[in-house]
Design a protein that fits this description.
The protein is mainly beta and 693 residues long. It has one domain (3-689): Maltoporin, Chain A (Beta Barrel). It has a 22-stranded antiparallel beta barrel. Strand 12 (187-198) and strand 13 form a beta hairpin. This is Iron complex outermembrane recepter protein. Keywords: Cell outer membrane, Membrane, Signal, TonB box, Transmembrane, Transmembrane beta strand, Transport. One of its GO terms (biological process) is siderophore transmembrane transport. Residues 229-653 form the TonB-dependent receptor-like beta-barrel domain.
């Protein structure tokens, strides 16, 4: 553990000022039942709407997740790819999408059963708060849950109000949104529509994104029903792809030749509907979520024509699939008053299904590149997950204990319709089953302190893409096993004077059977269970008012992530003690906000990260560390029923060149995704509240 972090923790926990503290209670529901943060025996962060804005334009989820200890957010400046999110190293290896971290929005999964998730459909304008669970407590959410990120939208409340806003910024950024909200004692309504256009910092990175969100709540007596609809349309978003080191040094805004030749791009069309139902029954509560949706993706890659022509097993350079997904999550929560405390039993069942009608095509016709060509892949992919679970929580005056057990069953089935000479039938099926226990205990100490400890076992299934070609002769990989992990956590939470909060945690994670690349040829990548890894670290988060007008927020993470066993990958030996790529050892963020009045806020932000390896071998140039500074200003004026708000934000004040994210193990050594230079945003929003004239 770094000496500086230890010294900060010792200073705060030994301060006599902690003797008289007024605790600011903050409630979370990520435990599946509402409970105050300060009583929970695990690491959790709640980000409220006001904390998430700070002049951000609302382009993607990464804006709202900065400054959470243990959570790494790498900005790709590429809307054709999902933001890179990882929690304590889980998810860092994801080649596309978000993996290893469970994503939920209003209780509806944004991750399919194999662990791949998408955050691009989330509507940030209607966001109320976010909860980030880290460590052993996440295992109760099932496979591929190294951490959990839950989004909660607002319920419509109060008299009707109309909202509209626009944001403009550098790199051709233009974003507009309109909405309406209203509510009574019987329920509420929220509706929002937004559109985003940008040219992008990188060449060949323009995007157009349209979103719609609607939520209707009905709350009679002891029941609550919420109907939720979302719609995402994203047509021909350009993909600038990564750069090799020499190209990055020449021009960070440039692209590789094939990026332009094949016009790499992605289109997404997604609609989703969900129902949340909650009812109080005697002393218990029943909660159920039903959801279903459809997602269509067409993506043009830059796989060269010669590579596709050289092998009959090559799946082509155009990905085209239509996904139907649906599920049911239901649980019963039963509390009892037992002696000096409360015992809460939660029993539930999660059932999720994803069905893909998937095709692959060549990305050329004759000499014409970047167009849909001949069929090279045609299959039906189905993934089902069934998971009953139990949680038992004891809340006493000083002692809090939580125990969880979940039985996970994840089944994959592929029906291959593309069987030609040289490309056999890749149909197959496999089912994974695993029990994942967890336990945590917290104890309230004097002076507003709470100490906690946790332990869990977890597992991570291969994704469908990893299974597809990992068997003998490139067939379906029946023999791949899930990676299994064991986590330990020790933490301390403190309530500081003036509604300040401190949370610090040490963790240790051991993972067996990590999936690594076994071979890559003919446009197909095969995986193997070969690696053992260890991750240990320390994280600390601090929020503290400094007088009447200043608020400071700090977050620091030290994460030592290494392979603990040597293995062979693509004919080369990866040594024991090599660092895991895509994970920075040190990361730090800080915000200082000055709010002299309710209608004025000025802020200064800092973010720093150490170097990151880009390949398992640790031989290629690591992405250098960096330190960036940003500033923002927010103003508000009220006149009767009208509220006018102005925002100004400048990112990367010094205009520094840096690597924003990396593409791990890229076969062409194009690992580096440059971050944007100095970038400004200016926003104006107007709100009208009926009944306040």
């Amino acid at each position: 553990m770094p000496r500086a972090a230890s010294a900060v923790l010792l200073l705060l926990t030994s301060s006599p000022a902690l003797a008289a503290v007024e605790v600011a209670h903050m409630v979370i529901s990520g435990t599946r039942f509402e409970a105050p943060v300060d009583t929970q025996p695990f690491s959790v962060e709640r980000i409220d709407l006001g904390d998430a804005r700070q002049g951000h334009p609302g382009i993607d989820l990464s804006e709202a997740l900065q400054g959470v200890p243990g959570l790494s957010v790498q900005q790709r400046h590429n809307l054709a790819q999902e933001p890179q999110l990882s929690i304590r190293g889980f998810g860092a290896r994801s080649a596309f999408g978000i993996r290893g971290v469970k994503l939920l929005s209003d209780g509806i999964p944004a991750s399919i059963p194999d662990g791949q998730g998408q955050a691009s459909s989330f509507d940030l304008d209607t966001l109320d708060h976010i909860e980030v669970l880290r460590g052993p407590s996440a295992s109760v959410y099932g496979s591929n849950s190294g951490g959990v990120i839950q989004l909660f939208s607002r319920d419509g409340t109060g008299d009707p109000r109309l909202l509209a806003g626009s944001t403009f910024g550098r790199w051709g950024t233009r974003r507009h949104h309109v909405g309406v909200e209203s509510g009574t004692d019987w329920g509420g309504l929220v509706f929002n529509q937004s559109s985003l256009d940008l040219d992008g910092f990188r060449h060949h990175s323009s995007a157009r994104v349209d979103k719609r969100f609607a939520k209707l709540t009905v709350t009679p007596a002891d029941r609550r029903l919420a109907l939720i609809y979302s719609d995402l349309q994203q047509d021909d978003t350009q993909d600038p792809q990564g750069l090799d080191w020499a190209a990055y040094r020449r021009d960070p805004r440039s692209n590789s030749a094939n990026t332009l030749l094949y016009n790499t791009r992605k289109s997404v069309d997604q609609q989703q509907v969900g129902i949340n139902y909650q009812q109080d029954l005697w002393t218990a509560q029943w909660q159920t979520t039903l959801y279903g949706g459809k997602r269509r993706v067409v993506q043009f890659l830059s796989i060269p024509r010669a590579v596709q022509q050289a092998s009959a097993t090559q799946a082509g350079g155009v990905v085209d699939f239509e996904r139907d997904y649906y599920g049911l999550h239901s649980r019963w929560i039963q509390p009892w008053l037992v002696g000096p405390g409360e015992l809460i039993l939660t029993g539930g069942l999660d059932y999720d299904v994803s069905v893909d009608d998937r095709q692959g095509y060549e990305n050329f016709v004759g000499d014409l590149l970047g167009v849909r060509g001949s069929l090279r892949r045609d299959e039906r992919d189905e993934i089902r997950s069934l998971a009953p679970y139990l949680q038992l929580a004891w809340h006493g005056e000083q002692l809090n204990v939580q125990v969880g057990l979940r039985h996970n069953e994840v089944a994959f089935e592929v029906d291959d319709h593309y069987v030609v000479a040289g490309n056999g039938d890749d149909s197959g099926a496999v089912t994974y089953r695993e029990l994942t226990p967890s336990v945590g205990a917290g104890y309230a100490l004097p002076f507003g302190l709470t100490a906690y400890a946790g332990w869990s076992k977890g597992f991570e299934t291969p994704t469908l893409g990893e299974l597809a070609y990992s068997g003998e002769d490139g067939r379906f990989g029946f023999g791949l096993r899930p990676a299994t992990s064991e986590q330990h956590e020790l933490g301390l939470r403190a309530a500081l004077p003036g509604h300040g909060r401190l949370q610090a945690a040490w963790f240790n994670i051991r993972t067996d059977n990590e999936l690594v690349v076994a071979a890559a040829s003919g446009g197909r990548t095969a995986y193997q269970n070969a690696a053992q890894t260890r991750r240990r670290g320390f994280e600390i988060g601090l929020e503290q008012p400094l007088g009447d007008y200043l608020q400071a927020r700090l977050a620091y993470t030290w994460l030592d992530a290494r392979y603990s066993k040597r293995f062979s990958s693509q004919g080369q030996v990866v040594a024991s003690d090599n660092r895991l790529p895509g994970i920075a050892e040190h990361s730090f963020s800080a915000t200082l906000a000055w709010q002299p009045r309710d209608d004025v806020e000025l802020g200064l932000e800092a973010a720093a990260r150490s170097a990151m390896e880009v390949h398992d071998l640790n031989r290629d140039r690591a992405a250098p560390g960096y330190a960036l500074f940003s500033s923002y200003a927010q103003f508000e004026q009220r006149h009767r029923a009208w509220i006018l708000r102005e925002t100004l934000r400048i990112d990367n004040l010094a205009g520094r060149e840096y690597i924003g994210s990396v593409i791990i193990g890229d076969g062409n050594a194009r690992y580096y995704e440059p971050g944007a230079g100095r970038t400004w945003y200016a926003g104006l929003s107007l709100e009208y509240r009926f009944g306040e004239d």
